[in-house]
Design a protein that fits this description.
alpha/beta, single chain, 38% helix, 7-stranded mixed β-sheet, 5-stranded antiparallel β-sheet, 13 helices
């Protein structure tokens, strides 16, 4: 255990039982069969750790849902929320409010290019929803292209844009969404052998899809800059620039979804900064205020903003730019600057997590690939390294998912809370996790991977 890590306070199982009982009686959980889940009752959290009422402490390798970029309970952000609550706890979005204006200014200073107008939402799905609406109104077109192996949110348009199984139950088949394959060399849909081949073939596939759909019918191409939940597949060099060029050639709006990858997660303020690519619209949420109060938004280019200069934008939210959320964003961005958290995430990825995970891969036959940047990594777990057969089938449940369930249980026994999706585990801790804490997590992951190794051939 890191010597500076917070320790769980004394155990209080009776209080935990009361919390659990109220949850099971009244809380309806997302993405779950309600009678088949057993949510952990959380007693508290600090920094990169949280603990339960039994006195068990966990190093959070999920950072919530990849949003506590500066960790739990940062005192500067907690104080900013408290101060704002004392000054002006809430106010309608049609007014100019200091916290809202300052948050927009600080975000616009960090977004690439001319993305200087900020439309605030309550989270990432609403940001995607409004970005697509803006693109459709700006172009007068309806179709939107999005990638398989993606996740964009659970509202009506966002879930139809999503390219993983969470879409299936809500897919209308008539939402104007056309999907394509984005690059992923390890499981290349284009039979590529090199990143250069994967990039070129993926771009050709995207353009072919556009040509056959009719470019004049397509409003936008929506991409996660680096897909998050779907697998943290860093695009090959030149891909995002190539998509930008294709969109420019056909007059299509390029939307980058930075909800998960933004605000320091990849070692840059935004993942697009790695390639120097400027989209027309960029969505954000999560790390903008470390998830302390719900907040998301769309950063808008000058050209698209001009569309609505004298024409009303037909969209809005009661809590758009909520003062408490914006005050948290201001404080978070200031903390990230003062504590050099973006630079720290880059160092963490280059010198600690990247080398450490690759070293684990050398010793564990269940690790097929390591990929990532900053504090944003994935391990692809496989039954067979030669054939790259996944450790569990796609979208496995029940007994078919037993190997990953056993791996997850081993992680928790060893004191880390893992982010698991299908046959992958993602290493996505707070961006300001210390080197000692990261190494503690890697040691726990090392032990858990031995369980996954038992299921290899």
């Amino acid at each position: 255990m890191s010597p500076d890590a917070p320790r769980a306070p004394y155990a209080d199982p009776a209080a935990g039982a009361a919390v659990k009982a109220a949850d099971r009686a009244h809380v309806f959980h997302s993405w779950s069969a309600q009678g088949l889940i057993d949510p952990l009752a959380v007693a508290g959290a600090e920094g990169a750790y949280f603990w339960d009422y039994e006195g068990n402490r966990y190093l959070d390798f999920t950072s919530g849902l990849v949003f506590t970029n500066i960790g739990y309970q940062h005192p500067a952000v907690v104080a900013a929320i408290q101060e704002q609550a004392g000054r002006l706890a809430t106010f309608a979005p049609a007014f100019a409010v200091e916290a809202r204006s300052e948050a927009a200014r600080l975000i616009a200073e960090r977004t690439p290019g001319d993305l200087d107008k900020i439309f605030f939402t309550n989270g990432g799905a609403e940001a995607v929803e409004n970005a697509v609406r803006m693109a459709r109104l700006h172009t007068g077109r309806q179709k939107v292209l999005s990638a398989y192996r993606s996740y964009h949110g659970a509202t009506a348009t966002a879930i139809n844009l999503t390219g993983d199984p969470r879409r299936w139950a809500s897919d209308t088949g008539s939402a104007g969404v056309v999907r394509f394959w984005a690059p992923f060399l390890y499981r290349s849909p284009f039979h590529a052998r090199t990143e250069a081949e994967e990039c070129a073939r993926a771009l050709q596939h995207l353009e072919d899809t556009l040509v056959f759909e009719g470019p004049a019918t397509v409003a936008a191409v929506v991409l996660e800059t680096i897909p998050g939940t779907a697998g943290i597949m860093t695009p090959p060099p030149g891909y995002l620039a190539g998509v930008r060029e294709i969109c420019d050639r056909y007059g299509i709006v390029f939307v980058l979804d930075e909800v998960m990858a933004g605000f320091g997660r990849t070692g840059k303020w935004f993942a697009a900064d790695h390639e120097g690519v400027v989209p027309d619209l960029m969505t954000f949420a999560k790390g903008v205020n470390s998830g302390y109060v719900p907040l998301g938004g769309v950063a808008i280019s000058a050209e698209i903003a001009a569309t609505f200069e004298t024409r009303p934008y037909p969209g809005g939210l009661t809590y758009s730019g909520h003062p408490l959320a914006c005050a948290a964003a201001v404080a978070t961005i200031e903390v990230m600057e003062e504590e050099r958290i973006v630079e720290g995430a880059a160092h963490l990825g280059e010198h600690v997590l990247g080398p450490g995970l690759r070293e684990l891969a050398e010793r564990h036959p269940s690790v097929g690939e390591v990929r990532g940047l900053g504090a944003f990594w994935a391990l692809e777990l496989v039954r067979d390294r030669e054939t790259r057969e996944p450790l569990v089938p796609y979208n496995a449940t029940g007994e078919a998912n037993a190997p990953m369930a056993a791996f997850g249980a081993a992680c928790r026994r060893n004191g880390i809370w893992p982010f698991i999706n299908m046959n992958r585990t993602h290493v996505v801790p707070a961006c300001n996790i210390t080197e000692a804490e990261a190494k503690e997590g890697l040691a726990a992951l090392d032990a858990a991977l031995s369980v996954a190794d038992e299921h290899t051939v």
